[in-house]
Specification:
252 residues; alpha/beta; 3-stranded antiparallel β-sheet
Length: 252
């Protein structure tokens, strides 16, 4: 199954990716699944590595007002750009503020069918401890994809798999080095100070447990998915962004 089908996306949407363990890979994979007839832009409220310009040309404009003037013509040509403010010394694209993206989306209703946004940074780790201003999710988001790297299951709570492990330890009441299992990972996901803290009230929340193909057994991934269900979370996707068929199952 494709990601676009698992997320129940139809003709348009603003999809923000948060969490850890494969946000960028999922965003670009979803972009490739969206039909060519749709106009798509990709961007970030944090920073992402500069993609291959042959496949994803980057448009770097320091003033978002300039983006408004040039974006429509670019999209009409069939190009799917990565938008950003400027290039950072580490070859990453600096993104826009959530407010600027909301303004761009709201003032140009219909300029793009899909806006895909990496709205969180985890330094390549599969879990993250959150500061007060994180994640940076635009209010115009219609679907919030919460990415969890399945490779963190059964690992120790330390910096090898967690960005800011000390923050996560305090938030979860876990000692440094504690084993991360389905229950405490789910508790971290739904914690009021965690990844869902800035989710817009009108957005659908869909956790995506990524890298499931890395597990010897999928039992714990299924247990995590079932533990996450409830409230605004109606279903959980299990899969791998780099697999030929990226969605293995949907738990609801």
């Amino acid at each position: 199954m494709k990601i676009i089908d698992a997320l129940c996306l139809s003709d348009r949407g603003v999809v923000s990716f948060v969490g850890g363990g494969g946000k960028t890979s999922l965003m670009f994979r979803l972009n490739r699944e969206i039909p060519d007839s749709r106009r798509v832009i990709m961007t970030t409220t944090t920073k992402i590595y500069l993609p291959s310009t042959d496949e994803y040309p980057a448009i770097l404009l320091s003033d978002i007002r300039l983006v408004k003037k040039t974006l429509q013509n670019i999209l009409q040509s069939g190009v799917r750009p990565v938008l950003g403010l400027h290039l950072l010394p580490d070859n990453k694209v600096k993104g826009f503020s959530a407010e600027s993206l909301d303004e761009l989306i709201n003032e140009n209703n219909g300029f793009a069918d899909f806006v895909l946004i990496e709205a969180d940074g985890s330094r390549g780790r599969s879990l993250k401890g959150y500061l007060d201003y994180e994640p940076v999710v635009p209010r115009s988001t219609t679907v919030l994809v919460v990415v969890i790297g399945a490779d963190v299951i059964g690992k120790a709570l330390d910096e090898s798999v967690v960005h800011r492990p000390e923050t996560l330890s305090r938030m979860a009441g876990l000692k440094p080095g504690a084993v991360l299992n389905a229950e405490n990972i789910a508790g971290l996901m739904i914690h009021p100070g965690g990844v869902l803290r800035s989710c817009p009230p009108g957005a659908r929340i869909v956790p995506f447990i990524n890298k499931v193909d890395c597990l010897r057994s999928r039992d714990e991934a299924y247990r995590l998915a079932k533990t996450l269900l409830g409230g605004r979370i109606r279903n959980v996707i299990l899969g791998s962004a780099v697999s030929k068929n990226p969605v293995f199952d949907i738990v609801d």
